[in-house]
Task: inverse folding
């Protein structure tokens, strides 16, 4: 048994008394390990009395859960309408070109992951992004690139 | 002598540099030997003025905004007097002065984690009233107030609560739907970041009315700042208000799925399943979370409850018109000059709000369209700007008020691409349960591409597809995607080459 598997099992067992524990468990594992490796699915399943298929089904359903390690920085850029009204589409193109990444991809050097978001609730200071969870408003491609990939 | 300053810790304020301003204020105060008490508030909702710094003088809060770190020394030099960013008394700023703030009365005024300030500003009075009322009386007050679900569907809250109260089942549940996924909406976020106790108090009243012992707040993961504030607020509220009541509230975080804002998908997600939509019946009120009778309400619905109990149902119902009672928190974003949150009784027209109160576009170009009610809402052209912003009038104009988010576009917007985006969004976010939504979104994107490329045969196909999606989807994801698509086609045919040729 690998270390992540042991840790995943401990986390899952610690949540087993909750009603509907799977999402909190997956968040806790991802927060600690950075991602949820598929080989820990059976451990989670065993601890929560689920099938491995059920765990796989939930992990693959939700855009937030990742099964591969993310970059050191995570850039989450809003693609929704209010940001489009303020040049969001051009911003997205410039970021993808500037980072050499499409949505959901991580740079080969592990520096940064680019994720789309469909509204960050920052619609009155669009276009908006989250850099490692910190909100950024009225962004430009230059300022974001300088922050995540200097 | 202590200097008290107020600066928001709201996500939008942080997105515009509030944290750097806070650091600069502390450093400058230290340098000058001033004892600074920096109160971190929510936002007033005037986002174009953020970061909005306030100081209290002679009983009035004076505003300065937007403030950058470079402004800080001069503000201290003038003792927060004359300054280019000085706005005078914040309450007199027309955008704020014209509002009726009930739900957002404390937002931007108090420290959201200060329970004493919450109480001093009318908080906990509703819960205190509820303790002296029977569940039947609480629900009667809610029904009399005319409060309707603020999530978008507008279902009468009193009927929902009564159904749960009368439902036969142990371990009833209160769920706050804080999965504010509709783009263009941020009222729930602002409330939870600026006045979280109002939501928690509303949940506690709901628990007393229906006899629930557990509450959940299902918050979207796109709001990490909000999650931190809610966690801190829950700790205070559990210790100082809920202790001994037999009711506890847990914060759960979503995982990026839009459909989880739909109540049955949310319940599946809360149970640890894929966030797919359930068929109704059974209603969540009868068999919701883990089969238990469940009140599931939007954040603003629950946050309106303490006010209704404290000040009476009649006072709340006196605002508004027709079947749209109370206040609505409009959120105006996108290409808008003065964007933010505007709470008022319904009835204001779309044009008054966008052009009058919000000053038109940020770019200074003419408004081309306003999308009302989120990503599944219709695009309104200026020709419909006399539409009053009520549930019924928006409906009659071929749209929906929804969560009251308004996204403004100037004349550079390409309505063909925005209509295509509506299908693209549906294709990304469809939970897959209903075939018209799962397949129709992809086919819709392809058919729109043909229409935009000039294929006139695509138009009848698209109309047929929209009809199937509308009639054959369990929830609004598939059922309402035709709203933005067809409104764009109807009002902006010039942005669709195929549509234009068909008309010629």
Result:
């Amino acid at each position: 048994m690998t270390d992540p598997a042991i840790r995943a099992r401990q986390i899952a067992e610690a949540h087993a008394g909750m009603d509907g524990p799977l999402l909190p468990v997956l968040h806790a594992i991802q927060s600690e390990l950075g991602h949820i490796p598929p080989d820990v699915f059976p451990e989670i399943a065993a601890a929560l009395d689920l099938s491995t298929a059920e765990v796989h089904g939930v992990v693959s359903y939700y855009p937030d859960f990742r099964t591969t390690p993310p970059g050191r920085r995570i850039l989450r850029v809003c693609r929704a309408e209010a940001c489009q009204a303020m040049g969001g589409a051009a911003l997205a193109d410039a970021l993808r070109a500037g980072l050499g990444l499409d949505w959901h991809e991580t740079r080969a050097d592990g520096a940064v992951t680019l994720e789309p978001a469909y509204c960050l609730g920052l619609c009155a200071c669009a276009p908006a992004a989250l850099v490692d969870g910190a909100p950024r408003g009225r962004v430009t491609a230059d300022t974001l690139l300088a922050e995540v990939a200097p | 002598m202590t200097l008290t300053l107020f600066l928001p810790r709201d996500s939008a304020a942080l997105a515009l540099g509030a944290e750097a301003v806070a650091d600069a204020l502390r450093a400058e105060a230290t340098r000058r030997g001033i004892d600074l008490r920096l109160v971190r508030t929510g936002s007033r909702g005037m986002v174009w003025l953020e970061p909005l710094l306030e100081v209290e003088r002679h009983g009035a809060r004076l505003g300065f905004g937007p403030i950058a770190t470079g402004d800080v020394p001069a503000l201290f030099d003038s003792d927060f007097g004359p300054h280019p960013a000085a706005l005078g008394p914040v309450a007199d700023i027309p955008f704020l002065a014209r509002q009726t703030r009930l739900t957002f009365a404390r937002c931007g005024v108090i420290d959201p984690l200060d329970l004493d300030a919450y109480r001093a500003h009318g908080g906990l009075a509703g819960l205190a009233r509820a303790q002296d009322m029977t569940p039947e009386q609480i629900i009667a007050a809610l029904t009399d107030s005319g409060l309707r679900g603020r999530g978008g569907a507008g279902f009468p809250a009193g009927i929902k609560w009564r159904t749960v109260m009368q439902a036969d089942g142990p371990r009833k549940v209160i769920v706050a739907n804080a999965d504010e996924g509709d783009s263009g909406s941020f009222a729930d976020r602002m409330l939870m970041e600026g006045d979280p106790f109002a939501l928690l108090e509303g949940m506690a009243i709901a628990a007393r009315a229906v006899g629930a012992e557990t509450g959940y707040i299902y918050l979207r993961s796109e709001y990490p700042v909000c999650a931190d504030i809610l966690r801190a607020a829950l700790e205070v509220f559990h210790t100082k208000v809920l202790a001994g009541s037999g009711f506890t509230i847990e914060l759960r975080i979503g995982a990026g799925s839009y459909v989880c804002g739909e109540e049955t998908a949310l319940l599946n997600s809360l149970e640890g399943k894929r966030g797919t939509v359930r068929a109704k019946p059974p209603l969540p009120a009868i068999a919701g979370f883990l089969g238990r009778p469940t009140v599931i309400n939007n954040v603003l619905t629950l946050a309106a409850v303490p006010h209704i109990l404290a000040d009476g149902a009649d006072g709340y119902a006196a605002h508004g018109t027709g079947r749209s009672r109370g206040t609505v928190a409009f959120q105006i974003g996108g290409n808008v000059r003065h964007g933010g949150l505007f709470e008022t009784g319904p009835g204001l027209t779309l044009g008054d709000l966008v052009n009058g109160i919000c000053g038109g576009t940020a770019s200074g170009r003419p408004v081309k369209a306003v999308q009302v009610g989120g990503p599944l809402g219709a695009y309104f052209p200026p020709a419909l700007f006399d539409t009053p912003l009520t549930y019924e009038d928006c409906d009659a104009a071929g749209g929906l008020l929804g969560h009251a988010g308004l996204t403004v576009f100037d004349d550079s917007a390409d309505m063909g691409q925005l209509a295509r985006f509506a299908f693209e969004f549906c294709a990304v976010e469809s939970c897959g349960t209903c075939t018209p939504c799962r397949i129709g979104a992809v086919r819709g994107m392809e058919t729109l591409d043909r229409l935009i490329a000039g294929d006139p045969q695509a138009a009848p196909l698209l109309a047929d597809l929209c009809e199937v999606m509308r009639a054959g989807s369990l929830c609004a994801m598939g059922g309402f995607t035709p709203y933005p698509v067809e409104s764009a086609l109807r009002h902006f045919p010039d942005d669709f080459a195929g549509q234009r040729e068909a008309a010629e």
In short: The beta strands of chain A are 73-78, 112-117, 129-131, 134-136. Helices of chain A lie at 3-15, 22-33, 41-48, 52-61, 81-84, 88-99, 141-148.
